[in-house]
Amino acid sequence: MKTKKLVVLGSTGSIGTQALQVAESLGIDILGISCNKNIKLLKEQIKKIKPKYVAVADEKAYSEVKSEFGAADIKIFYGEEGLKVLASLHEADMVINSISGIAGLTATLYALRAGKMLGLANKESLVVAGSLVTKTAKDFGGKILPIDSEHCAILQALRSGKRSEIKNLILTASGGPFFGMNREQLKRVTITDALNHPNWHMGKKITIDSATLLNKGFEIIEASWLFSIPIEKIKIVVHPQSVVHSLVEFKDNNVIAQLSVPDMKGVLGYVITEQMRKKAVMPELNLINSSPLEFFDVDSNTFRGIELVQFAHSRGELYLSVCNGASEELVKLFLNGQIKFTDIDEILLECLNAVTLERAEVTEDNIFWADRVGRDFIKEKMAR
Ligand code: MG
Known about the structure:
Elements: E1 5-9, H1 14-26, E2 29-35, H2 39-49, E3 53-56, H3 59-69, E4 75-78, H4 79-87, E5 94-97, H5 105-113, E6 117-120, H6 124-140, E7 143-146, H7 149-157, E8 166-173, H8 183-186, H9 191-195, H10 204-212, H11 214-227, E9 234-238, E10 244-250, E11 255-259, H12 264-272, H13 287-290, H14 305-315, H15 317-335, H16 341-354, H17 364-383
Parallel strand pairs: 1-2, 1-5, 2-3, 3-4, 5-6, 6-7, 8-9
Antiparallel strand pairs: 8-10, 10-11
C-alpha cells in the first residue's frame, strides 16, 4: 500500500511540531514543510525529516535555508509563491494548515482550489472567510477536517446521528486562567498570568484569545461553517477540566459527547488518519483521576469575547475580518505591555461600534481590506 504523504504548513509552531510527531508515530511521510522565520527549528526538521519541498515566508530566512540546503535534493521556495506550491502539490494526500492568524487564509484557499484534503488548524480561515472557504471547498472538491479540539469532538459525536437531527451544538470552554474572577480582578492581571493556560499549551495569540473568550466566539463561527448550523444553535458551557471536548444535542434530547485527555495529538491523529482511529497517539483517559467533571455558565459580564464576536457577526461577515484584524493588533499591544488585559475587549468593542464598511461582498480582496480597516483603527487610536 502506498504511504500517505503530508504537507505541514507552519511546521515550527505548536500544532505543526505536534503534527510532525504524530505523522512519525503513524508512519506517514512528510512531503513538505513551511515556516515563517523560525529557521533554527526548521533546519532541525529538514535534517530529521528530509522533506522534498520546503517553503519559507521571510526573505532573509529563505536565503539562509537556501544557502545551507539548496545543493541537497530539496526544492526550497520563498514567500506566498512558496505557500501556493506547497499547498497544491500534486503528490500530497493531505495539507495541514497550522499557520497562525489571517496569514493562513491564502494557504487554505490554495489547498482547497487544488482539491486537497485540508487539516485546518488555522481557524481564522473560517472566521474571516467562511462563505468563501466553504464555497471553494465545494467548487473544487476539497474537504476540510478541523484541527480544533471542540470541532473534532463534534465531528466524532456526529457519527451517532445525522446533521438534520441536530438540535444544538454545545462547545465546551475551559474558561482560561481567569475563570472565577470578576471584572475588577481581571483589570489587574499580568502578561505572565494570561499566558499561563491551565490545560493547553498553545501559541501566544490563541492563549490570550482563550483568556478573553474571544477564541470561543471565533469557534462558534468556525463550527457554524463546518457543520452548516446557525450560530443561535451553538451553545457554550464552561468546563474547567477540558476532558469533555464538546457535545451534540439531538432532537430527541439525547446528548453525545467526546472525552479524552486534553492533548492536541489526539485531534491530529484523528484528522491525519481521516477518522480511521488507527492507533493511540495520546495517553489514556483516567476517569477517576479526572473527577469531578464540572460545568458552568459563561460569566459574560466579566468575559466579553463571545458577545463581541456575535456582535461582529450580526453586523455582517466582513466585520468578522475587522474583529479578527483588530484583535491580532490588540493582543500584540497587550503582549508588549502597552495596554491592559481588559483593554483588549473594551477597545475591540469601540472599534466594532465605530467602523462602517463601504463594501459588503465577501471576496479575498475585501477580506484583507476589512482586516486592514480593523488594524488601522487600533493603530490610529494608539497614535492619538
Ligand atoms: Mg479549540
